[in-house]
């Protein structure tokens, strides 16, 4: 049996959806530099739900931003479905984020003046999907997340849990390969948070999408296929 490097998570999938190798990221330079990630390596297979845990400042959000192509690492590499992010120009990175990655944020990130269906349709507008097709898919996705009767309501008319369901539906709009979620239950009560976590688990199974979710919620850790723990920018634990 080949010994794995410290801080590396292995996967049984031969072609991982996400492959991170010796990833490093620092803010600032010299003696004042803050090293957010210190040689992180792991891979995630297609259709896996991976929970990323760690205290505030452990590097979770930095890691999500890098995997999502929102920022560039100081060192190391990230490949999504075999495509190295470092080899993409800004236009190609934008297309990757738009077409292949869905984002779910703690603060929901919905546009207040748009209805739930219109919010779900925003990513499809960016891809210039025809109106009728866009509206049909938006309503299909809202039904999937249990909001078929709320399609015409605006965010201010929805509860926090309902808003996060809309956000999940929006993340699925362009049929992404990967969902990245940063503390998706951070603003929700425990019961609502559990429902959202169960929904994410169901979505991963039904849609065959891969998910990387930063969370403090033990519910998701129970539902996840694996848990990766970060501490001071390093992986300290990985459990299936």
In short:
By secondary structure, the protein is an alpha/beta fold. It has helices spanning 60-67, 90-100, 116-126, 131-144, 160-171, 190-207, 218-223; strands at residues 8-9, 18-27, 34-44, 49-53, 75-80, 83-84, 101-105, 178-182, 210-214, 226-231, 234-239. It contains 7 helices and 11 strands.
Q: Would you write up a description of this structure?
A:
The protein is an alpha/beta fold and 240 residues long. It has a single domain, classed as P-loop containing nucleotide triphosphate hydrolases (Rossmann fold). 33% of the residues lie in helices and 26% in strands. The protein contains seven helices and eleven strands. It has helices spanning 60-67, 90-100, 116-126, 131-144, 160-171, 190-207, 218-223, and strands spanning 8-9, 18-27, 34-44, 49-53, 75-80, 83-84, 101-105, 178-182, 210-214, 226-231, 234-239. It has a six-stranded mixed β-sheet with strand order 7-8-9-4-10-11. It has a five-stranded mixed β-sheet with strand order 1-3-2-5-6, with helices on one face. Strand 5 and strand 6 (83-84) form a beta hairpin. InterPro entries: AAA+_ATPase, ABC_transporter-like_ATP-bd, ABC_transporter-like_CS, ABC_transpr_LolD-like, MacB-like_ATP-bd, P-loop_NTPase.
CATH-level-4 superfamily name: P-loop containing nucleotide triphosphate hydrolases
Strand content: 25-35%
Radius of gyration: 18 Å
- Count of discrete alpha- or pi-helical segments spanning 4 or more residues: 7
First-residue to last-residue Cα separation: 19 Å
Number of domains: 1
Number of strands: 11
Highest CATH level, the class: Alpha Beta
Would you tell me which CATH topology applies?
Answer: Rossmann fold
Give the mean pLDDT. Answer: 88
Strand arrangement, largest sheet? 7-8-9-4-10-11
- List the secondary-structure elements in sequence, H or E: EEEEHEEHEHHHEHEHEE
- Estimate the helix proportion, in percent: 25-40%
The CATH architecture assignment turns out to be: 3-Layer(aba) Sandwich
Shape: globular
SSE class: alpha/beta
Largest sheet: 6 strands, mixed
Q: Please mark out the parts with pLDDT under 50 across 5 or more consecutive residues, or reply none.
A: 1-13
Keywords: ATP-binding, Nucleotide-binding, Transport
Organism: Kitasatospora aburaviensis
Protein name: ABC transporter ATP-binding protein
GO molecular function: ATP binding
């Amino acid at each position: 049996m080949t010994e794995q490097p410290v801080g590396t998570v292995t996967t049984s999938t031969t072609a991982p959806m996400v492959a991170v190798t010796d990833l490093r990221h620092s803010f600032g330079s010299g003696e004042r530099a803050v090293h957010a990630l210190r040689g992180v390596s792991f891979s995630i297979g297609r259709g896996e739900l991976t929970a990323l845990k760690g205290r505030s400042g452990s590097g979770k959000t930095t890691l999500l931003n890098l995997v999502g192509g929102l920022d560039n690492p100081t060192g190391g590499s990230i490949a999504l479905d075999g495509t190295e992010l470092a080899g993409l120009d800004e236009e190609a990175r934008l297309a990757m984020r738009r077409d292949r990655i869905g984002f779910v944020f703690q603060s929901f990130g919905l546009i207040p003046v748009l209805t739930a269906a219109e919010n779900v349709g925003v990513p499809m507008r960016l891809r210039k999907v025809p109106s009728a097709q866009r509206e049909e898919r938006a309503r299909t996705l809202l039904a999937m997340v249990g909001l078929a009767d709320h399609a015409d309501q605006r965010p201010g008319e929805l509860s926090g849990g309902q808003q996060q369901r809309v956000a999940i539906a929006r993340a699925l709009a362009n049929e992404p390969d990967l969902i990245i979620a940063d503390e998706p239950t951070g603003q929700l009560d425990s019961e609502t948070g559990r429902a959202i976590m169960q929904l994410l688990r169901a979505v991963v199974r039904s849609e065959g999408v891969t998910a990387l979710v930063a969370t403090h919620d033990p519910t998701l850790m129970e539902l996840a296929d694996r848990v990766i723990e970060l501490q001071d920018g390093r992986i300290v634990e990985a459990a299936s």
